[in-house]
Write a structure and sequence with these properties.
heterotrimer; B: 1085 residues; alpha/beta; seven-stranded mixed sheet; 22 strands; 13% strand; disordered N terminus; C: 543 residues; alpha+beta; four-stranded antiparallel sheet; 13 helices; flat
Chain lengths: 272, 1085, 543
């Protein structure tokens, strides 16, 4: 495991400390402004504050395979990006499936998927992403990770205000954490034939400000099947999202697109 | 492509295989045919046949916003005695789409009317209807609501999903994942829509549940059941059928891709995810709807409520045809007899008198009087407007029509039996087409729309179907073949009507391997797609008029042309239901003849009409026999001209034959040569028996007319008239090549039974098949022959007026003004050039001479010509300034005129005039002060004069012809040096020798029958040379052959009597050889 | 090769045709070949057919890009700066000529003829056929180069370099004739011009045609006419051109801008291996480069850093950006990342920075975000992030999903590297291909079949489904239990099947029945039965 913190040039450490000081000096804004809803009212009420604070890390511990933990965490990412900004999914294994995200209400236009090749690259990439302003949330599955790295991520998130959502196995439950919150998510089997919505039990197992130990059961609504596409809409028409109006939505949809648009002209000639 | 058999053929699952349960009763209520264009992937008859085979109790055809396919489905259902429900899926602007089923005739009328409503208020091809509008047509219609969100709901549904609203609500609002394409809260829109429908349709409202193994059918069905309970609208099962068998999935995907203008691979979610939209068996449906057996049972309930059949449609003629107090029949009889007295001022001949009585009795018997009155009404209108017209078709050559003035073919001169065309036993509609002057037909159409109203008159549709060429193009694109590949293949199929082994060879030539899966798929898909309807066009002229509202008979929609409305059925559909249409066609020659009559009257005072042109004039026949027929109706084509010297028509009936014989039917049926030999007395005329003699004696034992082919089937093979009629249609139905072969056995057997020889029978069959849809009925030929005769007579006696009239009626016929003018000059007509002080828009006559009109100048509009005419009313123009001041034409127009060299009478040649024109200001003479000031201080410019050759080229460029010389003559010296013969020498040059000719290309013609041969006509200063270019030569010299304006042709001279042509072996581009025809020749594109 | 252009109303039209791909390097805006009867402005389909018949194989089609043409010519102009300090591209819509100011340069090259020959040879090395002319005025030189007789019949009249214009002019003799420069001696301009076609005066085609109609074909005929009558009829252009040709009116070369100074160098007094020192040097160079580029409103797209030791050992790396930048900080950061990973065996003596690709800077985007500082910075920071990630992880590892909406889950979405993404349409989150609606199929017709919306999909989907032992009730029934990673899972709840039958155009039709299953612990998986074989697969997990 590399320790980038130590090999960091002095100048950068200084810059980072300065930034850190600035963060501390800046009065924490009370109220809901900096908070991101989890997307579930009952879960919000479980938390010390009704939502997640931007610029922090949140750990979601999955109590088993295919438990819905990642989905729940992605709900929070969706909420974090409501005001704009990118959602970055760090997906080393290439398993992440965007159509599912689309169904959760995430616009693919705000989504960047990063696939680092190894742990070292992932650690570095997470750090880079978390420290970038313009990133609303980072979603990543993290099994084990070095304490320093997590610390570094936490600082990076603080700098930019990004929300770091780390989906982790229950096994790391007793590892030290730099996360603001640590939640345990267990799936609950449904009795046969009682509907399709999946159930999860969420326990707040660690919080920097106490309140730990409470549990809430949530029902994750399966998206309703729908009856075909809207009848009069040609299948090739622009999707609804592109046709939405209103300033906040507009900012969201234009945002990345324009920011990432490279210059159009003259490439071919230059290459030739 | 799915390789497995249809699932219905697999062993049935446990429940059904116990065999104790009777077949479930099921009616499929939602099926799209391929008349939901580029959506449904089966023909209506395929669906009906499959539904019957599966033992369904009924099938509803519910195409999207159309009834265009119902007649075909009806015909199929009728033969199978299967219950068909007529319906349609209706898209609504502000509500979910609904499927409507018709319970009775009145409900059907409302459905047709509502489709008309939605079509008429939308641009062509679209459909706009609101729920409120739908509600007004509700009575009698059953309504199935499709649970699909209409587009307008998007905005509504999206209101609450904005972030602000989300946070306001209780947190539960946030637990529901909000999907871009999912409504929230869910289903309220549907419940609301159901309530609305129930308020309007009452207990005739249903909620349609169609399951297609989607993401979660179980839950979807559960929700629909809930919703059905909540809204108290019963649930009915359906299949959302798009094709009759699973195997059509690929074709349906291809259609979708075509519709979206993309490829299958890129069409993405526009494609159905599986093949579950096939016509499922009742058993399969029962398994699908195991959770909702009621919904399944309800299908038959719906079907039982629908009792309407298209057979109930009854066509009724318009009423207002007879004056008050008189029945239509009385009126018709009166008109006919008074007409007869006018036609025969010296007393109606006994023969005609008898015919009239007979025909009127038959008309009365079959109740066709209204039809004749309808036709008469149109003709009367045209006559009042001085629009020349003539009827043709089976009933048109009757004595009644002659007396009504519908036709000018004197029944006394012809021996056409009325009954042959209107038969008692075969309740077939009389057939009258009326040709009008092509420039004025629109007036007649608009008269009909005005008279009967848009609701009662409409044009017949023409269903445009896929041909091999278009199918290859579209399928190729959808499969992602490169554009040039597809083009190459499609182009190579040019002219091929039939889809057959050609395609494979051609695909290989175009570089598409048939061994590749792509190639196989292409061939397969094309094979399926050929014959599919693609869109509705308008028939050339068929108008339907009804007593009641037409739009309650069949939906009417907007045509591509302004002011035209079209019904959704084509002529076969109309025939099927016995609905009469009148064909109003346009014919350029009528325009020309009328204009010629006018010119003759103006200049000689002689008033002529179609009926009063002197008959059977030998001089006219002599001219025709010489093939001196350029500009004459019909017999001016290359093929006709080469036939004339062989046939040498001497009587009117010879002309009738001449018109009919040079047709694909007789040519392919190999009837031409036998006829010519018999006519020349080289072959005896024999008949196997007396009945056949009756049918064929007029045409020397060779069937030349379609009617004869049909009659032969009856008298020789024992067909009933109805069967003969089916045969006629089978010949037209080229989609299914097998159909005609079925008749073959029947024909041959029939003839054998009648004791006719095998060779004779085979011959007859070949001839009948040859007719196909190209057969020419005698009745049409007779009417055309009259126009042939009249135009020949005019050309013979009034060549100047005739030429002027034909030029003034352009575009029409085969030849350009240059050839017509040249021909006139060969007939000693003096042709005078266009001149600002003499010409008007049209060509005119000056004593015996022909004065060309401004209309020949390319790029000059009629308005400007009229300006000049008006300015000239105050006296001739005296000079350039005078002209320019009085006409105030723009610099651009002046330049056009100058380039056309029309200032001869002002002593300005084209360059001087152009030089003057260029000096004109853009806004001429804005200041009246200067009007009198002669600003011409300029010294005349030292412009070089034009050489004669340049003049000619400039003439051609401006007006398409030159009176000064022929462009070729300037090059004759060089041409002679190259051993190129002048065209006139071809008549005397030894035949079968290799020759070279050169000239301007007049016509390139490739008749569909000529096996790829192209006829090219060249013209030089001495005459024309006829070339025959075989396909291989054409391909070899493709570029030159196709594009060169002037050619050098090498080939063998062939001469048979007066028929001379050059069988080409090599082509060269003449202008390339000469280095440009004019020295400054440039390409202007 | 056929170059074509797309007209909104007239469809695809030919720009030029070149029968041999080998000589496709010919400047493409010349009058197309008459060899196959293909003409400029002809519908593409027709030209394709003609070319087809001429060559027996389908021609290569390419969309004409005038910008590329111009840029190619500009590049040529740059390379010609070795002959003259003032080189320009002719000023017109479709430039095809280079103008060199050769005043006083003859002696440097051993005479004007030698100069012209060297230019022609230079172009010959680039596989280009050029005709050079030297005269008192640019206009006259242009006229002579384009219209002076070659002693060989040139039917097209307007072509400069016949290899693109006339097939049979490809013979060595003709080529040699073309490559012989025409030198018009001082003061002999008029005799050289007088007999030329009026088109030599660079008049528009329509005007030339009009003059031809009047019989005015040669320059001398035009010049003989009264100036005021000419002015009244043809405007000032012919007179102006005439004057320019004869030196009576000035005409300047709009010189090609000098190419940006592309290379920057730092020499250490004492070679060093210290990263900080090298880093510092590199940053200085980057600052210089960015400053130079920013003045031209250009930014770096690609740059190369090369380090040399005194022993001539070399190390180098290349940095690419996905958006041009002249921000030294941004570029500096990117290079620093690379530099950090470099190990120098010997002390570095020279740092050399070469800007490999530049493009115009775009300032536009910034204006969209005007509300607050954070917002203003965010896109820039995101852009930097993407560059940084792409540079280290590779462009393929920083991607954006792009829904293809195919029914088969594996093909339902596609990824594109963010760094290489072309300008994203605002509807980028749906299916990619821009579809043009087909005529007559808009409106209700078009809304037809696509009724499928992806169902409830798991957040994790395998690109290659995993074959599993599964027990099901009936051959076609739902699954009961399955074994995964050595563990048996009993299925408590099952939803499905959702049937997918698609992809026949890819070869074999994919046919699957998908089930969502829940085990006794509430874990959810996505399984399918392959319908052709009956085998079971795990395709995804609802993590």
């Amino acid at each position: 495991m590399s320790t980038p913190l130590r090999s960091q040039p002095i100048s950068e450490v200084v810059a980072e400390l300065t930034e850190r000081v600035r963060q501390i000096e800046r009065p924490r804004q009370p109220g809901r402004e900096g908070l991101v809803s989890s997307g579930h009212g009952r879960l919000d009420r479980l938390l010390p504050e009704p939502g997640f604070r931007r610029g922090t890390l949140v750990e979601w511990l999955a109590a088993g395979p295919a438990s819905g933990t990642g989905t729940l965490a992605l709900h929070a990412a969706r909420e974090a990006a409501r005001q704009g900004g990118a959602i970055v999914v760090v997906d080393p294994d290439g398993l992440f499936y965007p159509p599912a995200a689309l169904r959760l209400g995430i616009e693919l236009g705000q989504l960047i998927v990063v696939r680092p090749a190894g742990d070292e690259d992932r650690a570095w990439a997470m750090d880079q992403i978390l420290r970038t302003r313009g990133v609303a949330a980072v979603w990543c599955q993290v099994d084990t990770e070095d304490d320093h790295t997590l610390r570094r991520w936490q600082l990076a998130a603080e700098r930019s205000g990004a929300l770091g959502l780390l989906v982790r196995p229950e096994a790391v439950r007793h590892d030290p954490s730099w996360a603001e919150l640590r939640l345990l998510v267990e799936s609950v089997a449904r009795p046969r034939g009682t509907g399709r919505n999946r159930r999860v039990r969420v326990t707040l197992i660690r919080s920097r400000v106490g309140h730990a130990g409470r549990t809430v059961e949530l029902e994750l609504a399966t998206p309703e099947p729908h009856f075909g596409i809207p009848a009069n809409r040609p299948p090739d028409a622009a999707p609804l999202s592109a046709r939405r109006r209103g300033t906040s939505d507009e900012a969201r949809s234009v945002h990345l697109a324009s920011a990432l648009a490279p210059a159009k002209t003259g490439r071919r000639a230059r290459r030739a | 492509m799915p390789e497995q058999p249809d699932s219905d053929k697999r062993p049935l699952p446990a429940a059904a295989s116990r065999g104790t349960i009777a077949l479930p009763r099921y009616a499929e209520l939602q099926a799209k045919t391929n008349f939901s264009f580029l959506e449904g992937a089966s023909h209506p008859d395929e669906l009906v046949a499959r539904a019957a085979e599966l033992g369904m109790s009924a099938l509803a055809v519910t195409d999207r916003n159309t009834l265009a396919g119902v007649v075909r489905a009806h015909v199929a259902a009728k033969t199978l005695q299967f219950k068909l429900i007529i319906g349609a899926q209706i898209d609504l602007l502000d509500a979910p789409p609904v499927v409507l089923w018709t319970t009775d005739r009145a409900a059907y009328g409302r459905l047709a009317r509502l489709i008309t409503h939605g079509r008429r208020q939308a641009p062509k091809g679209e459909f706009h209807l609101s729920f409120e509008e739908l509600a007004t047509y509700a009575p009698g219609l059953l309504c199935g609501v499709l649970p699909r969100r209409p587009a307008s709901f998007d905005e509504v549904a999206h209101g609450p999903t904005s972030p602000a609203a989300d946070r306001n609500g209780d947190s539960t609002a946030n637990t529901k994942p909000c999907l871009a394409s999912c409504s929230c809260p869910p289903d309220d829109w549907l419940v609301e829509a159901l309530h609305r429908c129930r308020d309007v349709f009452g207990d005739r409202t249903y909620l349609v549940a169609a399951l297609a193994k989607g993401p979660d059918d179980e839950q979807a069905l559960a929700r629909l059941i809930t919703m059905s309970k909540r809204s108290r609208v019963p649930l009915v099962a359906a299949g959302d059928v798009h094709y009759h068998a699973r195997s059509r999935l690929p074709l349906q995907d291809v259609l979708t891709a075509i519709r979206l203008g993309t490829t299958v691979a890129e069409a993405g979610d526009a494609l159905f995810p599986n093949a579950e939209r096939y016509l499922k068996s009742p058993q399969t449906m029962r398994e699908c709807f195991a959770a909702a057996p009621d919904a399944l049972a309800r299908t038959t309930e719906v079907a039982d409520r629908c009792t309407f059949s298209l057979d109930e449609l009854r066509y009724e003629y318009p009423e207002e045809l007879a004056p008050p107090g008189e029945t239509p029949l009385q009126y018709l009889t009166r008109l006919a007899w008074s007409g007869a007295r006018k036609r025969y001022p010296r007393g109606v001949p006994q023969k005609v008198r008898g015919l009239l009585e007979h025909e009127l009795a038959l008309i009365a018997d079959l109740r066709y009087e209204a039809y004749f009155l309808t036709v008469f009404d149109m003709v009367r209108f045209a006559r009042r407007r001085k629009i020349l017209c003539q009827g043709r078709g089976s009933a048109a050559n009757s004595a009644v029509c002659y007396c009504l003035g519908v036709t000018a073919v004197d029944p006394a001169r012809l021996d056409l039996l009325f009954e042959r065309f209107i038969s008692r036993e075969r309740n077939e509609a009389p057939d009258i087409d009326i040709d009008f002057e092509h420039e004025r037909r629109e007036e007649v159409l608009q008269y009909l729309y005005d008279k009967y109203g848009r609701e009662r008159a409409g044009m017949t549709a023409e269903v445009i179907t896929y041909r091999p060429r278009s199918a290859v193009r579209d399928v190729g694109k959808a499969l992602g073949l490169s554009l040039d590949r597809v083009d190459a293949l499609a182009k190579s199929l040019e002219g091929y009507r039939h889809f057959d082994e050609h395609l494979e060879q051609r695909a290989r030539d175009a570089g598409i391997s048939l061994d590749s899966s792509l190639g196989r798929r292409l061939i397969e898909m094309v094979g399926q797609l050929v014959g599919f309807p693609r869109h509705l066009g308008q028939h050339v002229g068929g108008m339907v008029m009804t007593r009641g509202p037409l739009c309650e008979l069949v939906p009417i929609e907007n045509a591509a042309m302004d002011d035209r409305t079209v019904i959704q059925w084509n002529k076969d559909d109309l025939d099927e239901l016995g609905i009469l249409k009148v064909d109003c066609l346009s014919l350029g020659m009528l325009t020309a003849i009328r204009k010629c009559f006018d010119l003759i009257r103006q200049h000689t005072g002689r008033a002529l009409s179609l009926a009063t042109v002197p008959q059977e004039d030998p001089a006219v026949y002599r001219m025709i026999g010489r093939a001196d027929t350029m500009g004459v109706f019909q017999i001016e084509s290359r093929a006709q001209m080469s036939m004339l010297p062989r046939l040498r028509p001497r009587t009117f009936y010879d002309l009738v034959i001449e018109v009919a014989i040079v047709r694909p039917g007789p040519i392919q049926g190999n009837m031409v040569h036998p006829y010519l030999r018999r006519r020349a007395g080289l072959e005896p005329v024999t008949f196997p028996n007396e009945e056949i003699r009756q049918v064929l004696h007029k045409t020397l034992g060779v069937p030349l007319f379609q009617e004869q082919a049909m009659r032969l089937a009856v008298v020789a093979a024992g067909f009933t008239p109805g069967e003969a009629d089916q045969l006629r249609r089978a010949m037209g139905a080229w989609r299914r090549t097998g159909v005609i072969e079925q008749f073959r056995t029947k024909l041959l057997d029939g003839m054998r039974a009648n004791g006719l020889s095998e060779t004779f029978a085979e011959n007859v069959f070949r001839q009948i098949r040859g007719f196909g849809e190209y057969g020419f009925p005698e009745s049409h030929a007779a009417s055309f022959a009259l126009l042939v005769y009249v135009s020949s007579w005019l050309k013979c006696y009034y060549p100047a007026a005739f030429t002027a009239a034909v030029i003034n009626s352009q575009p029409m016929g085969f030849y350009a003004p240059a050839q017509l003018v040249r021909c006139a000059r060969e007939h000693d007509v003096e042709v005078r050039p266009i001149d600002v002080n003499r010409s008007v828009w049209d060509c005119t006559l000056e004593e015996e001479s022909l004065r060309l009109g401004f209309r020949l100048i390319s790029g000059l509009s009629e308005v400007h010509a009229r300006t000049i005419e008006q300015a000239r009313e105050r006296g001739p123009f005296l000079g350039w300034d005078d002209f320019s001041r009085r006409t105030r034409l723009s610099r651009a127009v002046m330049s056009r005129l100058a380039e056309a060299d029309v200032f001869g009478s002002l002593a300005l040649d084209r360059r001087k005039a152009l030089w003057q024109a260029l000096a004109e200001e853009k806004a001429p003479r804005a200041l009246p002060l200067f009007e009198t000031v002669a600003a011409e201080d300029e010294a005349p410019a030292p412009l070089p004069g034009l050489e004669a050759a340049e003049e000619v080229v400039a003439d051609y460029r401006a007006a398409g012809l030159s009176l000064k010389a022929h462009p070729m003559q300037f090059h004759r010296e060089r041409l002679s040096a190259w051993n190129i013969l002048p065209a006139e020498q071809l008549a005397t040059h030894p035949a079968n020798r290799y020759v070279r000719v050169a000239g301007i290309v007049l016509v390139r013609q490739r008749p569909s029958t000529a096996k790829g041969i192209t006829f090219v006509t060249l013209e030089d200063e001495t005459g024309v040379a006829n070339l025959i270019v075989r396909q291989d030569v054409w391909q070899r010299f493709y570029r030159v052959a196709r594009t060169a304006a002037a050619l050098i042709a090498h080939g063998r001279l062939q001469r048979q009597g007066r028929v001379i042509h050059v069988l080409v072996s090599k082509l060269e581009d003449l202008s390339e050889q000469l280095g440009g025809l004019g020295s400054q020749s440039r390409d202007f594109h | 090769m056929l170059l074509y252009q797309w007209h909104a109303s007239r469809g695809a039209r030919v720009v030029t045709y070149c029968p041999h791909l080998a000589s496709a390097a010919a400047l493409p805006w010349q009058a197309p070949s008459r060899q196959a009867g293909i003409r400029r402005d002809m519908p593409l389909a027709e030209a394709t057919a003609l070319a087809d018949y001429a060559r027996r194989d389908p021609p290569h089609l390419e969309l004409h890009d005038p910008l590329t043409d111009r840029q190619a010519l500009e590049t040529l102009a740059e390379s010609c700066q070795r002959f003259s300090p003032s080189v320009g591209v002719e000023q017109c819509e479709h430039p095809e000529s280079l103008l060199l100011d050769a005043s006083g340069l003859g002696p440097l090259f051993g005479g004007e003829l030698q100069l012209a020959r060297r230019v022609v040879r230079e172009l010959e090395h680039r596989n280009l056929v050029a005709r050079a002319a030297l005269a008192d005025t640019f206009a006259a030189a242009w006229a002579v180069a384009h219209f002076a007789d070659l002693q060989i019949a040139d039917t097209s009249g307007a072509a400069t370099t016949p290899n693109g214009s006339d097939g049979d002019a490809d013979t060595p003799a003709v080529l040699a004739a073309i490559r012989t420069p025409c030198i018009v001696r001082p003061g002999e301009t008029w005799p050289a011009l007088a007999r030329l076609n009026v088109a030599a005066l660079r008049l528009p085609d329509e005007l030339c045609a009009l003059l031809a109609d009047l019989g005015l074909r040669r320059v001398e005929q035009l010049a003989a006419l009264d100036r005021s009558t000419l002015l009244a009829r043809f405007g000032s252009l012919p007179l102006e051109r005439l004057d320019q040709a004869l030196g009576k009116a000035p005409e300047a070369i709009i010189a090609q801008a000098a190419p940006p100074e592309c290379e920057f160098e730092w020499l250490f007094e004492y070679p060093t291996g210290r990263q900080e020192a090298i880093q510092f040097a590199l940053e200085q160079l980057i600052a210089q480069a960015c400053q130079a580029l920013a003045q031209q409103r250009r930014g770096v797209l690609r740059l190369r850093c090369r380090f040399e030791s005194e022993q001539r050992t070399r190390w180098q790396f290349v940095v690419g950006l996905f958006r041009p930048s002249a921000d030294a900080r941004h570029v500096g950061e990117l290079t620093r990342l690379k530099l950090e990973s470099m190990r120098f065996a010997d002390p570095v003596a020279v740092v050399r920075l070469t800007v490999l690709a530049v493009d115009r800077l775009e300032y536009r985007q910034r204006e969209i975000f005007v509300d607050e500082e954070h917002r203003r910075e965010a896109p820039r920071e995101l852009a930097v992030l993407v560059d940084r990630l792409s540079n280290r992880l590779g462009a393929q590892a920083v991607v954006r999903p792009w829904l293809l909406a195919g029914a088969q889950p594996e093909f339902a979405c596609q990824y594109q590297p963010v760094a290489r993404l072309a300008a994203l349409p605002s509807r980028a989150n749906r299916s990619a291909p821009a579809r043009k609606p087909r005529r007559g199929s808009r409106g209700e017709n078009a809304s037809a079949s696509g009724s499928q919306v992806p169902g409830d999909r798991p957040l994790h989907v395998r690109s290659h489904p995993l074959r599993l032992p599964v027990m099901s009730i009936a051959p076609e029934g739902p699954p009961l239990r399955f074994r995964l990673a050595g563990r048996d899972h009993r299925i408590m709840n099952v939803w499905g099947p959702e049937r997918i039958e698609t992809g026949w155009w890819r070869g074999r039709c994919t046919r699957r029945d998908y089930y969502q299953v829940e085990t006794g612990t509430g874990a959810r998986f996505w399984l399918f039965r392959e319908l052709n074989s009956g085998g079971w697969f795990l395709h995804g997990e609802f993590v």
